[in-house]
Amino acid sequence: MENVVIFDSPGKGRGLKATKEFWAGDVIFSEPSLSAVVFDSLAERICHSCFRRQEKLQRCGQCKFAHYCDRTCQRAAWAEHKQECSAIKAYGKVPNENIRLVARIMWRLDKEGSLMSDMQLITLDELEDHLNDMQEDDLKELKVDIHNFLDYWPRNSKQHTIDDISHIFGV
User: Which of 15, 92, 120, 130 is the most buried (most CB within 10 A)?
Assistant: First the structure.
């Protein structure tokens, strides 16, 4: 990106500094999301593809967890839901939203690598995970999520180190 530069600010972390003047309303940079999941509390009221709230949603016939507006949304989500669907069936229950999100991110990284677009400022590996700054209670929750993630993560998927998994949870 020729109009911005990443810099470190001691005590504050990384920042983004403009190298030219911008006007109100200018888009400085834009990047699509790496992954997304529906919050557990909204899982039956939000389409897992387009994220619209609907009164009546159709449930995935395989895992019985994911909900969709219609067949169009279900087909659109299948490439990403396919691995999650079989993992939920094998695990025997639906893991929490944090575990589902980390799994989706890791499946995408395994498939596409860490560079997602030409406009990407930094890779996921370069993002701060702040694991060293976590409180003891938060670290306990993190360890439980990691343990449950390891039970959920399919044996036929690429296996990752605890450090890599912890980093993704921390980010």
Answer: 120
Closest CA to 169 of 129, 110, 132, 136: 129
- Taking the whole predicted model, whether its pTM rises above 0.90 is answered as no
| Lookup result for tokens 């296996």 | 159
What is the three-class DSSP state of 19? coil
Which residues are CB-contacts of 168 (< 8 A; sequence separation ≥ 6)?
A: 102, 105, 106, 124, 129
Q: Identity (one letter) of the amino acid at 118?
A: D
pLDDT in tens, 30-75: 777 889 999 999 999 999 999 999 989 999 999 999 999 999 999 9
143 neighbors 135 (Cβ within 8 angstroms) = no
Element (H, E) at 6: strand 4-9
pLDDT, tens only, 77-118 = 999 999 999 999 999 999 999 999 999 999 999 988 776 665
